[in-house]
Every structure is written in structure tokens, then in C-alpha cells.
Amino acid sequence: MASTRPRPKVMTMTDRAAERVRSVIERSETPVFGLRIGVKTGGCAGMEYTLDYAAEPGPTDEVVEEKGVRVLIDPKAILYLLGTEMDFVTEKLTQRFVFNNPNQTSACGCGESVAITPARPDSYVPAA
Questions:
Q1: Mean of the per-residue pLDDT values of the chain
Q2: What pLDDT sits at residue 114?
Q3: 8: closest CA among 64, 50, 57?
């Protein structure tokens, strides 16, 4: 019987991102299983990241549990997010989630949308 290698996580989170996800979930007025992350067509660069509350995982969601929080990856976004690190930054006038995505090829000037090329799963090697 052939052995299988462990599947890499679709994405990882920094400590700041995990703490912010935890905070967002705790403040929800309804029970939340995790934060659902996806991508959609839009913006001047072509795609936008999406974040939504998830009351429960969908049958094909990829569930990433890290640092005590859960994020669910929309199955249509997996190849776009493969290898991404989610961070949370605080700047002078704004706080926001930032996606350090190796598949991102460009971004618009305002930073609201990105161009992303889907990863080829056979070429993905997780960072050590």
C-alpha cells in the first residue's frame, strides 16, 4: 500500500490575523463556526477577496484550524489561495486583513482588488 503525504494547509494565519478572527467571531450576534474566505470577480484588477461569517461548514469547504480559530475556504477559491498567509495590519487610518498570496500577480492602485493566477497543485511545495 502506498503511503500518502500529508496535505498542506491551503493558507496560514499570523498571530495578529488569528487574534482578529477570534475577536470578530466572539462579537457576532449569532453563533459562528468560522470565517469563510473566498475570491470573487470584481474591482479594477479583476478579483477581490471575500470574508463572511459561516454558521457551519459547507460540504466541500476546506476547513483550516490554526491558532485556536477556524477559517473555511470556499472550494472555488482553493487554487487561488494555495500558499497564502493571512495577516491583520493596523495603519494610521485603517485596520484590515492582508493576504500575502504567492499566486497574486498584481494589484490595483487602491489595494482593493488583485489579479491572481490559480496555483498548479502539482507544483506547490509548502514553506518549511
A1: 81
A2: 53
A3: 64
